[in-house]
Amino acid sequence: MRSLLVILIVVCSFQVMAVAQTETATVDLALPTDNDAIFHGGGPDFYQYVERDYRGEKSTPWEGGQYGFVRDPEQTRAGVVYTRFHEGIDIRCLHRDERGEPLDEVRAIAEGKVVYTNSVPGYSNYGKYIVIEHRWGGSPYFSLYGHLSKIDVRTGDAVHRGQQIAVMGYTGAGINRERAHLHLELNLMLNHNFQEWYSSFLHENDPNHHGIYNGINLVGLNIAQLYLKLRENPSLTIPQFLGEEEIFYKVALPKSRHFELPNLYPWMVNGTAEARSWTVSFARSGLPLKIEPSELKVKQPEIVYVKPSSLNASYLTDGIATGPTTHAHLTEHGKQLMQLLTFPD
Known about the structure:
The chain is of the alpha+beta class and 345 residues long. The protein has helices at 2-25, 194-201, 223-232, 238-242, 261-264, 313-317, 332-340, and strands at residues 52-54, 57-59, 68-76, 79-86, 89-92, 105-107, 112-118, 128-136, 139-151, 158-159, 164-168, 181-189, 218-220, 249-254, 277-282, 288-294, 302-306, 321-322, 329-330. The chain has seven helices and 19 strands.
């Protein structure tokens, strides 16, 4: 009987552990506002349009509110290429008062902790914004809510899924009352030494007011696609989701004890650390997807692969690299951004 009891306790313990691990990895996302048109066709009912003036032709395409390279069209020999990356999604306003002011409640998309609030609109293109940290599968992810009119939480607050945290607004650069919307992102973090890197590379007359929660240090995944995929498969994890992303370029980094990505997101690592350098694979947006040991000996970041194309590498790397894709090299901007990954080395 005692043996049977021990077996039952062990089995139950493993079951509890398995459930706990599943729960921490499960991504159960709520929509941040009442607008649920993403599940009913999306398009102009869900996304806030942008105002575009391309070669003298003015338009208001809702596509510019999507995640991805959806802004700043440019004519190339391969056709029109959209050159500016939009790291989140712009969710259209549903509720307004008699003056046209937005009234939509903004809610936390998942359980987490408020790690940053910016209450000074002029400090950021996001205007007033909130960052919430979530933990899934042992890794940190950061939802960002921008262009708010009112913030209802403080740094350090624990929030639950669906809890009201703010009211939609139109604070930030280039937005008026008619285009009031919520800008939503779900991000990975690059380096906790961000402030020191910022001070070393960027202008003193452009101070960083946001610490490690500056948009440069937070890289966004396609949250709209994640919502849709989770609706099809509620057990989907973020590593599985990002495993389907296409790799556009790879950069070799020197070995460094300050390289945080393998510790923050160990699911990215493929192989052991017994090598001379790391090769990091990126989506076109600059989102890191995979980390692999390499035998290359490098003293500074080097581009080692760009997806073959007739276009200049800058179009495929968001300006990180330039030149023919077969012989691309990092731009000065690219070198600085890659150095952030291992800063202060």
